[in-house]
Amino acid sequence: MEAALQGAEKRFTEQLAMFQISLSPEQLRQFRQFYENLIKWNEVMNLTAITEEEDVYTKHFLDSLSIVGLVGPGSFDNLSVIDVGTGAGFPGLPIAIAFPGTQVTLVDSLQKRVGFLQETVKLLGLENVQIYHSRAEDFGRIEAQREHYDIACSRAVARMNVLAEYCIPLVKKGGYFIAYKAERIKEEMAEGKKAAGILGGRVEQVISFQLPGTDYNRTLVQILKEKHTSGKYPRKAGTPAKDPLGK
After folding, report:
1. Residue 91 near residue 180, CB atoms below 8 Å
2. I need a labelling partner for 112 at 20 to 30 A (CA). Which of 48, 132, 133, 159 fits?
3. What is the SS3 assignment for 220?
4. Residue 170: partners with Cβ closer than 8 Å, 6 or more residues away
């Protein structure tokens, strides 16, 4: 495993160079520990179907950091980023490792996943991460969290209009919601644009690309928060998914 992991690390650093990201030996150690702890926990609970070293480094770690294709690596200093529905920590934890000057908040609704995240953050010695156990809708109604973040991001599996209601209320005016989506999202975008407008946002750009050195396609949707979000959003837990905005 060690030789294969070294190979995965080497390829990972080469791929990140295409995004103008370079990692220190300590950061590479943290990614290695993250991988090892992910595989250990995955044996007893379902965190990811992707378990091969090369695939984890590419389809989780590299993919999480592809956000720099929109934001730029030099823009991540002193930002506040929230990852909504983080699951096993993607994209939030790779962002926290690669950009230690960025404050990252992870939110997930499942206590077991939160336990994994807490152990991983402690194991890696990350001091720039906060973790909350909460439904996205409930978290977005906490006064101290509303319109608090420079960037809200999510790789969660939900349609754009649903993710918009989860995330845009958390973004400060002038900040961004960035959604990680699959290559084909045209059928989601009309509803997503309407929902963004209701919530005070505007779709600024959509970029689709292939992750460097792979055949893995990713689309990032960047929504600028132009106006304050009405206090009635997000609606109560379960409503955004059952009755999405912008239909």
Report:
1. yes
2. 159
3. strand
4. 82, 84, 139, 140, 145, 146, 147, 148, 149, 152
Strands 103-108 and 80-84, bridge-based pairing: parallel
| Residues 116, 80, 72, 83, CA torsion sign | positive
Q: How far apart are CA 150 and CA 177, in angstroms?
A: 9
Of 63, 22, 61, 16, which is closest to residue 220 (Cα–Cα)?
Answer: 63
Q: pLDDT per position in the chain (247 positions), as tens? A: 445 557 889 999 999 998 899 999 999 999 999 999 999 999 999 999 999 999 999 999 999 999 998 887 778 888 999 999 999 999 999 999 999 999 999 999 999 999 999 999 999 999 999 999 999 999 999 999 999 999 999 998 899 999 999 999 999 999 999 999 986 788 889 999 999 999 999 999 999 998 887 888 899 999 999 999 999 999 999 999 999 998 8
> What is the DSSP pairing of strand 149-154 with strand 80-84?
parallel
167 CB-near residues (< 8 Å, 6+ apart): 82, 84, 136, 152, 153, 154, 177, 179
CB atoms within 10 A of CB 19: 18
SS3 244: coil
For the record, the structure tokens of 47 come out as 């965190």
Question: Is-contact 170 147, C-beta < 8 A?
Answer: yes
Closest CA to 200 of 153, 164, 235: 164
Residue pointed to by tokens 């689709």: 208
**All domains in the chain, ordered by first residue:** 2-242 (3.40.50.150)
Write down the residue that tokens 């930002």 correspond to. 79
With a CB cutoff of 8 Å and minimum separation 6, the contacts of 115 are none
Ramachandran angles phi, psi of 175, nearest 5°: -90, -170
